[in-house]
Amino acid sequence: MINDFGPMPIANSFRKEGDEDSFRYKLTTSFCEFCKLFQINENPKVEQMFHDAYPFFTSTSKSMVSHFSKFFEKFMPSPVGDSFIVEIGSNDGSLLAQAKNMGFRHLGIDPSGNVVERAKSHGINAICAFFSEKLASEIVSDHGKATRIYAANVICHIPDLHDLARGVRELLAPEGLFVFEEPYLGSMLEKISYDQIYDEHIYIFSGLSVQAVFAEYGLQLVDLEKQGTHGGSMRYVIAHESTTTPSKEMLGILKREKEQGLNTTETYLEFANECEKRKSQLRELLIGLTEDGNRIAGYGATSKSTTILNYCHIGNEIIEYFCDTTPEKQGKLTPGSRIPVISREAAQDKLPDYFILFAWNHAEEIMRLESERMPSSVAWINIIPKIEIVSK
Ligand code: TYD
After folding, report:
1. What's the predicted TM-score (pTM) here?
2. Whose CA is nearest to atom 17 of ligand 1?
């Protein structure tokens, strides 16, 4: 075992006051020296995480919509008529919207009914299902093989990576590409962003682990591209074995991963020590500020914040409220820590002395927005990549 974050609720289980909130699992991690995977040890049933009330719609983030638009253009197959594009975890269809607009045959797959309905209402072909080898065979019989398979922030949610790899091998056309991107292990270790670890992120991938897992199924990692999204992500490009030459950039990144020690247990044990230090540091800072009579609020009720709040035992006695733009979270309580979530507008009437930036992966967008409307009497507390107070 590497980390022990203690009992954890589901990261996205925002509940109304009075609603039952007793489910907990043990959030611990491990590293496998054989396949180089870093993963959580116990994952709640996927049905508990992805359901008809999944509270995240990709289209609510302007920066993510623009990111997906560039993603689509970069890997767009041709000609349009012969191509078939599949997206695993298609959410509300933000990425497939372009495929639809350009006349590509396409199919989105997502296990959360509410987001699938949203995609369909925009004319996108989508089905509500978990991707599996069995589903891949059915798609091949109905539509043929896929020229492109895309996924963003979803492969790390799938518990059975072997079934996923077999499904991709089945569905992917001989010259096709499987392109996916996920929060990157190298960035997590650099920033000590342990808040990336929660129930939906069963794995935090590296180039080395992705290469090892897919190689078992005749699939080859051929390119890697670092991305700025989600606080540091990596894009992985996979093809059938011996169809494409691996890029120089990929070989360079794999070399750096070894230099960074992503292939040895010691690196992860050091990371776990750092997490413990961050926990003490954050508690000390917040308890000190509260004892001095300051009011503290959270900015962005992210899934990531569930790990920090529950691991560091921070609740409503320290954080008065969270503000968040997601209507599905407003009027509810943060999972486990039970802190009320309100809209940013509602927060304007009761601004705190300190806002903790839990949505640190959107720091630029948020600071641009807030530079106008946040008075200088409110200071920011950054928690990632380091814990610090930033005054305006
Ligand atoms: P997200 O980036 O999806 O992180 P996670 O995967 O950890 O949930 O979530 C960002 C959250 O921050 C989301 O609940 C919306 C909120 N948010 C704001 O409240 N204001 C903003 O300006 C932005 C960009 C996000």
Report:
1. 0.93
2. 300
